[in-house]
Design brief:
This protein has helices at about 1-15, 110-115, 170; strands at about 25-30, 35-40, 55-60, 70-75, 80, 85-90, 95-100, 105-110, 125-130, 135-150, 150-160, 165, 175-180, 185-190. By secondary structure, it is mainly β. The strands form three sheets. Strands 5, 6, 7, 8, 9, 10, 11 and 12 form an eight-stranded mixed β-sheet that branches. A three-stranded antiparallel β-sheet has the order 2-1-3, with no helix packed on it. The relative contact order is 0.18.
Length: about 190
């Protein structure tokens, strides 16, 4: 119990400190049929859409560390107030930012994410979700092809559709997760 209290205190103190920011880019464009695409590789954008690309500057680096290996990855994160924000991808190439939430059972995505990914929520099962304020709501629960943070990827993952993005235990429990608050890095291993 003493170790847990000490760890929580160190985590709390570290969250109050400052964080360095590494900038990355994501590119979003819409084709002639109205389908929206996203990538972090500019060269993969079809030539005819390059002048219509929206560039997102992302204050969470997608650059991996030299220590990355086939079964582990290290990614940067930023702190916003008392939260940890990490970049990832939905269904392979749609870039998003998640709030890291070890208190959330599931990964949550937004209704906008579902729309852009072309997901039909009308036939989705609903689940009861308890919010941080204690209120219980019903929300659609679907499966995504994948959620990826760095090289760490979970396929065929259930997600709940709501008002915000949370990286919850349905993703995190698949890995050994080490959060280095001082360096602003998360290590995910064992995949």
């Amino acid at each position: 119990m003493l170790v847990l209290k000490k760890t929580f205190f160190i985590l709390l103190i570290s969250l109050i400190g400052s964080a360095s920011v590494v900038w990355g880019k994501a590119f979003i464009w819409t084709d002639d049929e109205g389908i929206q695409y996203a990538t972090d590789k500019e060269e993969s954008i079809p030539e005819k859409y390059r002048d219509k690309v929206k560039i997102i500057l992302d204050p969470v680096g997608r650059n991996f560390e030299p220590g990355d290996s086939p079964d582990s990855t290290v990614v940067n994160f930023v702190r916003r107030k008392k939260t940890i924000v990490v970049s990832g991808f939905l269904n392979g190439n749609y870039p998003v930012e998640f709030l890291l939430d070890t208190g959330s059972t599931d990964v949550l995505i937004t209704e906008e994410d579902a729309r852009v990914l072309g997901l039909d929520l009308t036939q989705a099962a609903t689940v009861k979700v308890r919010l941080a304020d204690g209120k219980v709501i019903e929300a659609p629960r679907i499966r995504l092809d994948s959620v990826r943070i760095g090289n760490a990827k979970v396929n065929n993952i259930p997600v709940v559709v709501g008002k915000t993005r949370l990286l919850g235990l349905s993703f995190l429990n698949k890995f050994k997760v080490v959060i280095d608050l001082e360096k602003g890095k998360i290590s995910l291993s064992g995949y």
